[in-house]
Queue: 4 jobs
Job 1
Amino acid sequence: MSNKNVPNAVSHKCSVTSGSRCRSEARASGRNLKLEIEYDGTNYCGWQVQRSPQSSVHSPQKKSIQETLEKALRKILQEKIRLIASGRTDAGVHACCQTANFKTSSNIALKRLQKALNALLPPDISISRIEEKDLRFNSRFAAKSKTYRYTVLNRSYPSALLRNTAYFYPYPLDIKLMRKQAKVLLGRHNFSSFQASDKIERPAVRTIKSINVTKDKQRVYIDIEADGFLYNMVRNIVGTLLEIGRGRLAKVSLEKILSAQDRRLAGPTAPAKGLCLLKVKYK
C-alpha cells in the first residue's frame, strides 16, 4: 500500500490509561458506515481470509479483500475495524458493488474517508461510495437479494485482455435452449443439485427471482438474482447450462437435475474468474 496524503482521522481523544475502553464505548454509540466496493478478485483468496495450516513462509496465503480493507481503515481511523459484508466471494471472484459496514468513533467526512481509502488501497480495490446508516444496519442481514453475472467468452480464440474476467469457452452454444432451460430454476426450490460440498451443512432452499441468458457478439452473460446462494451455486448452474447449450446434457433436462437433488447429475463447476457480484439489494 502507498502512503499518498492519507489524513489522520482520529477525532475522539482519550487518556492513555482509558483509551481502549473509551474508543470501545464511542464505537457502541458512534457511527455505522456502509461501503460500496469494487474489486478484481484475481490476486486474493476471496473476501474473507481462509487460514490454512499448510501455508508457510515459502508458500504464503494470499491476502483477502477484507483484511486489505481493514488494514487501510485502521491506518486512517487509528482504531480496530471489523467489516461486515453482504456475503463472501470466493478466490478469483470479482465485485462491481460488494457492500460492507463497520462501526467507528471517528467523525471524518465521508468524502475525505473515501479519498483516503482509495489513496491507500491497491489498484484492484476501489471504494465507489460511502454512506452513514442507522446503528442497527447490518450489510449481511439487511440484504434482500444479490445479483451475480457470469461472463463467457464464446469464440474460437482466447483473449489476453479478458483472461481474468471471462471464461473462454470455444464451443458452439444453443443460447435459446439455455435460456429456456434456465427458466426452470425460477422460484423457490431445493438447489442441492447445484451445491458444492461444504464443511457446514446448510439448508438448500433458495429463491431465484430472475435468471437471464443473453449474448452480445462474442460474450454470453448469465445473470442470476436470488435471496441467497449456496456454496458455488452460481458457478454450478453456469457449468450445467453450458453443458446443455453445447448438447452434452441433451438427454437430461434441467428440471430433472433440479428435482433429483443430486450434485452428480449437474454439470461441472465453471471457473471463478467469470463470476462478478453485480448488485446487493436492500429495499
Job 2
Amino acid sequence: MLRIHSLSGRSICAAAVVCVSVASAASADMLTGVTCENPVGSPVGSSSGIADYQYLGARFEFTEQVEVESVGGEFVNLYGSFFAAIVPLDSMAALPQGDPSQGIPFNPGEVLTYETFSVSQYPSPPQIRTIPLSVTLDPGVYGVVFGAGLYGTSCNSVSGMPRYHSIAGSSGFFWSSLWSNAYDDQNRIQITLVPEPTTMGLLAMGGLALLGRRKADHRRRRST
C-alpha cells in the first residue's frame, strides 16, 4: 500500500492510490496540490457508462485532516450534465448506504458536498477533466462519485469513462439500481489536495537551497 507523505514526514494518505503529480502554484491554470488517483491496470478497450442513475466512484483514505481542491476523472465521448460528489465511507471495503429497495443511492445528508458540470461534447481520445470542489475532510475514508440524474443533472445516453483492469489497491465501485464493487472495471478517478503551509514552505526552502548550491558550483567552476 502506497502512503503519501508531506515533507514534514507525516503520512497524509494511507489509501493504495497513485501520486500523480505535485503541480506548481505559479500559474492559476495549474493545480496547486497533490493529485491522488485510483490505481488501474491495462486498458480493457471499452468504457463504463455514466447516465441518469448510473454512477462510478472510487475510494480514498486520509490519515489526517486535508483540504480538497478538486476532483477529476478520465472521460470519453461525454455529453450532458453531471455531478461530482464526495461521500464518507466506513472503510476501504464499504459502499455508500442509500436505500436500494427504493432506488435511492444516497440517504439524506450522506453526501458531504457536490458540484455539477456540463459537457456539450467531450472529445475522443479520453481526457482528464478537473472539477473544482472545495471541502475539508477529517481523517477517514471517502468516495468520489460521478453521475447524472441528481441535483438537476441529466444524461440520457451512456457517456463514459474508459475501463481498466484491476490491480492491487484498485478501489472502484458503482451504482446501477444498487451499490456494487467494480471488481475488474476500474476507472481513473482523482482527488487533489491543497498542500499544507508547512509543506509549501519546505518546498520553497528546498528550491532556494538548490539554487544556492548551483550558484556555488558555478563560482567554483569559474575559479578553476
Job 3
Amino acid sequence: MKKIYYPILVVICFLAFAAAFPQKAKWKGSIEEVDGVTVVKNPKKPIYSNEIVFFNEELSIGKPEGPEDYILNHILSFAADDEGNIFILDRKPYRVKVYDKEGKYIRSIGRMGQGPGEFQSPDNIQFTDQNELMVCDSGRGVILFFSVEGKFLREIKSQMLILAGYTLIDSQGNIYLNKSTLREPLYKFHKIFPPYENSEVVFSFPVSTKRTVPPRRIRFSLLPGDRVVWGIQSEYEFHLCDSKGTTIKRILKEHTAVRVSEDYKEKYFERLPSSFSKKSQNFSQHFPAFDQFFVDDEGRLFVKTYVKLKGTDKYIIDVFDSEGRYLCQTSLKVGDEISLDQDKFVIKDNMLYSEETDEDGFPVLKRYRITWNY
C-alpha cells in the first residue's frame, strides 16, 4: 500500500507547490516603433496563466436602512484623498458624502441648487494634484472645486461642459471630456485649455443615426505626469499620450467578439423606462471589445471585459503592465452591470475602491487591499 500511495503523495505535493507559485510563460507579443510611436501588440493569452493579483476586502460602506448618512441611493462617482478618506457622490439628493478610512461618516459637501458651490446635475468627482475635490456638473456647465474640509473654493464655467458627462482635469488645468451634438454625427474626445475658450479634438468617430445597445463610446483616464490613456470601445486598442497630447504608445490585444447575451438584454429591459418601446431597441450582435478601464499607481492598466467568470457574477479583467504587455487576468464584481458610467473602480495607494451591490441589490462601496505575487 505504501508503494501505491507514495507516487500519489508526490503528485499532490507537486501540484500544491505549482499552485503556490506564478505560472509564467514567455510573452509572445511584439514591440515596434511605427512613425515615432511605440506599438505593443499582445496575444490572446497573458504572461501569467494563474492568479497573481489578490483583493482582500477591508471595508464596506452603505446600508439598506438606518441613519441616512450611511444609506447610498445611487453612487455616481467616488474618490479617496491622501489620508484614505472616502468621498462618494450620491444621487437623491445630490451631494458628496465623506467617510474616514474606517468608514465613519464625517460630513457632506454641496447641495442641490444653482448658486455658488451648489449642484444641478453632477456627473463625477476627482481629486486634483492640488488636493482639491473637483465636481463636474454638466447640468450647469461648471466644474466646482472644494477643499478637503468641504469649503467651496471656485468654479470654472464653459459652454463645452454643458451635458458633457464624465470629465477629468490635469495638473495644468486642462480639461478632458467626451461630447456629441445633434448638429453633426460625430462623437468627440476634447481637450480644453485655460482660460477654457479654446479646445482641440483629440479623436472623433462617426455616430450612427440608429442607436445601438450597448453603445460604443470613448473611455479615458489620467496617468501620472499628465499623461492620458484613451480607447474607443469598438476596438481593443489603447492610446497613450504625453502631457502635450502627442501619442507615444499604442497597446493592442487580439480579441474575439462576444455575442450579446440574453441575460444582458433582460437586465437592460428591467432598467428601460416604461415610456420606451422594447421593440425599438436595436441590440448589436456582439458586445464592444471592452467595457471600461482604470489604472493603478504603478501605471498598470485594468480592462473590464464583457466576459463573466464561469459560474460567478464576476467579470474578467485583463491586466497590462506599465510597458503595455498583457500580464494576467483577474475578476471583479460589478454593481450596476448596465450602467454606462466609467468610474466604477478606482485604485489609490494600493487600495481598490469598487462600486457593488449587497445581496439585496442595495448599492455599497467596498475597499480592497491589493497584493501581487509575481
Job 4
Amino acid sequence: MIATSTKLLGYCTSGYLRVFVSPTGASVIESNSKAFSSLLYTADSEAWKTHLGAEGGLANFLSSGEVLPIAPWLSSEEFETQNKILAQGGYTGPLNWYKAAANFDPAQEDVNLTAEEKRVEVPTLLVIPTKDFAIIEPMQVHMTKAVTGDGLRVEKVDAGHWAMLEKKEEVEGLLERFAEEITAGHA
C-alpha cells in the first residue's frame, strides 16, 4: 500500500500503518497522545502528508512532542473529551482495526463468491472529502464501485478527512437529500 500510493500520487498516504500495526504502536501513541490527537485534528490538513502519510513521519512526529494547532471546527472541550476517553481505554482497541485489516485473509467462502454475489444492489452515497490526504478520491471511488451497483452517487465536500465534523451541515444535507430521494423512489 505504501509503494502503491507513492507511485500513483507522488507521496505516501499510509506510512502511519507502520506505527499503528506495530506491537508497541498503542503505547507509543499513548505516551504522546496530545501530539497524536493534534495531528488527527490539525487545522492544516497538509500536515497529514508529512507527519501521518509519509513513511516514518508519524514516528518522527510523535517523538518530537510537537502539538499542532487544532482545527476551528473542533472545540477545545471536544478535543479534551476525546483525549480523556482514549486515555481511559487506551489505543489498543482502536488500533486493532488496522492490525486486522493489515493481516486480512478473506475466508474461503468469500474467495469463491462471484463478483455479482459481492455487489450491494442498493442506492449508495459516497461522500468524498477533497482535502483528505489519507483516503484519496480515485482509490475510494474505485473500491466502492467494485461492490456497488448502478445506484452509486458520489458527492464531494471541500473538507479534510473529518468532513462530517468540518462540514457538518453540508454532509447532513447530503445525507438528508439522499434519504428523501430514496424514500420518494428517485434515487
